[in-house]
């Protein structure tokens, strides 16, 4: 199974909206800086949170951070500063101290945009043959544009990262947008056909439902669009949301795309680990970005 980037965009209804900076407020933190930005994304005001080194020596590498779901609709972009119970600790400070400019925006229905329920927003779009995730990815691409145009960012060294929903945001956007130079994603890479066969698909939110997608693509073939750009995949082998057979099927399909450069595809599966980040995953992610962005 293979899909072109153009066709993938069509299935998602992907269309990057215009983005404009409305305001920016800086805040000093312990060893790093925080920026609270207000962005106009396709006519909608959206909150963004950015962390960066205190002193920027020229243009820096950057990371577009996709926040997770986990039922925490009120959290959104605050995950960058506050973390989640399945993260070791908040990643915004960690990445800033490591030398990266990192941006996260509230996805639709999350953070300051949590005025409507997921099912309400998703069902309305599905009736029109669109998807909530297509909207999320379109806005995530707009955030990438803002990040790439900043004076302190090297547009040629932008990576993407996320866990859970943020995982799919990150690797699907990397598949769609070649401006992402490297992507690391945790705890949501799998073959959806296999998940349906195993009954594991219902653990994922309706936001991820894309009409007709599985007739033409799945996790492995989508991730294959990233090749030969570097990709790090981390999963817990006891994660009910990504059963081992579903991960194995997606990985088998993906490996073919990296046959000429197998070293650019890194996979870490941890036995006995569920839906969470581990110290081994954290170390692998930091080493991966240092190698390909630093």
H/E series, N to C? Answer: HEEEEHHEHHEHEHHEHEH
Question: What fraction of the residues are assigned to beta strands by DSSP?
Answer: 15-25%
Give a quick account of the main beta sheet: strands, pairing sense, barrel closure: 9 strands, mixed
CATH architecture: 3-Layer(aba) Sandwich
Note the overall shape. Answer: globular
| Cα end-to-end separation | 34 Å
Report the helical percentage: 25-40%
CATH topology: Rossmann fold
Widest β-sheet, arrangement of strands = 1-2-3-5-4-6-7-8-9
Mean pLDDT: 96
The number of helical segments is 10
CATH homologous superfamily grouping: Alpha/Beta hydrolase fold, catalytic domain
Q: What are the segments in which pLDDT stays under 50 over at least 5 consecutive residues?
A: none
Q: What's the CATH class label?
A: Alpha Beta
Q: Give the total of beta strands.
A: 9
Query: What is Rg?
Result: 18 Å
Q: How would you sum up this structure in a few lines?
A:
This protein is an alpha/beta fold and 294 residues long. It has ten helices and nine strands. It has one domain: Rossmann fold (3-Layer(aba) Sandwich), CATH 3.40.50.1820.
């Amino acid at each position: 199974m293979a899909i072109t980037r153009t066709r993938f965009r069509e299935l998602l209804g992907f269309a990057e909206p215009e983005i404009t900076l409305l305001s920016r407020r800086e805040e000093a933190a312990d060893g790093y800086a925080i920026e609270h930005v207000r962005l106009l994304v396709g006519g909608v005001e959206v909150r963004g949170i950015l962390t960066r080194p205190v002193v920027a020596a020229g243009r820096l590498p950057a990371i577009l951070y996709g926040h997770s779901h986990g039922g925490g609709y009120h959290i959104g972009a605050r995950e960058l500063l506050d973390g989640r119970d399945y993260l070791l600790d908040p990643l915004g400070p960690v990445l800033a101290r490591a030398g990266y400019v990192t941006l996260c925006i509230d996805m639709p229905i999350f953070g300051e945009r949590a005025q409507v329920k997921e099912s309400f927003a998703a069902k309305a779009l599905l009736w029109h043959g669109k998807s909530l995730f297509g909207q999320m990815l379109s806005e995530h691409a707009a955030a990438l544009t803002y990040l790439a145009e900043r004076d302190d960012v090297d547009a040629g060294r932008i990576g993407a990262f996320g866990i859970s929903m943020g995982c799919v945001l990150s690797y699907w956007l990397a598949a769609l947008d070649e401006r992402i130079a490297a992507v690391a994603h945790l705890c949501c890479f799998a073959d959806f056909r296999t998940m349906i066969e195993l009954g594991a698909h219902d653990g994922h939110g309706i936001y991820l439902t894309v009409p007709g997608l599985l007739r033409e693509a799945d996790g492995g073939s989508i991730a294959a669009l990233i090749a030969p750009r570097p990709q790090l995949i981390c999963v817990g082998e006891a994660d009910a949301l990504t059963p081992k057979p579903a991960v194995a099927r997606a990985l088998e399909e993906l490996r073919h795309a990296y046959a000429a450069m197998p070293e650019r595809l890194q996979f870490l599966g941890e036995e006995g680990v569920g839906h969470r980040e581990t110290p081994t995953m954290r170390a692998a992610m930091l080493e991966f970005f240092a190698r390909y962005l630093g």
